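User: Hey, my collaborator sent me this sequence without any context and asked if I could get a structure. I don't really work with proteins. Can you help?
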Amino acid sequence: MQIVQPTTKTYAPTLAAVKEAAQTLKGIASVTPLSYNDYYSKLYNCNLYLKREDLQQVRSYKIRGAYNKIASLTETQIENEIVCASAGNHAQGVALSCKLLKIKGTIFMPTPTPKQKIEQVNMFGENFVEVVLIGDTFDDAYHAAMEQSEQLNKTFIHPFNDEKVIEGQATIGLEILKQLETPIDYVFVPVGGGGLSAGLSSVFKMLSPNTKIIGVEPKGAPSMSTSIENNRNTTLKNIENFVDGAAVKRVGDLNFHICKENLHQMITVDEGEVCQTILDLYNKQAIVVEPAGALSLCALSQYKDEIKNKNVVCVISGSNNDITRTAEIKERALLYANLKHYFIIKFPQRAGALREFVAEILGPTDDITHFEYTKKTNRENGAAVVGLELKNAADLEILITKMKLRNFYGDYLNDKPDLFQFLV
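Assistant: No problem. I've predicted the 3D structure and written it out in structure-token form, which is a compact way to encode the shape of the chain:
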């Protein structure tokens, strides 16, 4: 996601503005639970609370900023209608806001957007929104939305780089401080464009300045981390889009200046760890989260020593996870844990070679999960691409040694990204 920013100006939300936003959102955005989590509290020897923004009606916190912005429009702006670009949560927040406020809106989405997300936007917006599918990427949708905004004088509803949006997201901070009376030592918050982290950190700076606010980004899209390190808002050339709710090439200019001053630290987490956390939350907690929603919990392993016996809050930002991604999530989690491996295996062209590989090379708990083999030559050895799932990461070295001793080993593909991208 790449979004051109308006001219930079110095801004920080005031407490009065955030409280006004809270009043605007009363009865619209849910006051989501701040739930004590026994599992993670025991795992990290701390008092861990989850701020469950995944339980909002649109299943993410985005309704707060979108509604607060749209509710602030003038009569003229309402008559001219609004427009936005989004491939996910922001679109749903805007759609519901349009229906509730009875304002017409056009939502541009990339053509490859999953059908489920498009249906959700139409469901929330009903006859108040029109979804326009255009282009192959978010950038295509964004530029089309901006073009319509300029040509028809429609108000563009920015997903994060807007004062009213930031103030709406900041209401999460007010709620947390009202819900937990004991002093909060750490808050871990996911960072995409920076609207949530800018708003929440501003509230804590005013009302609980000793709380350390830790921003968490995916390793493949470290736009805020890079910008703070460079001391200027920096556009990344390339990003990994897997954590789609937090993968932006450039954070908001307003948000960058706030986060640079307010955040105690920015850290990144591996996308594979995000996948494992998604699976753990579902299997052990019966909680469904999207990749961005798992970011804050992923950060805890890096802070395990600092947070012992502390009061810790993790913001679970959303649960709009596409079920069709489950296989990819499991695959990435196994790769991160060093339990899934792909090889080129050289099978001798004789009867029993495959049986020998299975019976004498593989360990008793090793599974073949991928096998692609077509004999097209008269060579002595026929190559196959084989995916193996191990129960213990330490078994890899033993496995490779056995393959080499019996002349089955061809190549290891996990560390060859040009080839590996065709398998995962």
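In plain terms: Residues 44 and 304 are 6 Å apart (CA to CA). You can pass these tokens on to your collaborator as they are.
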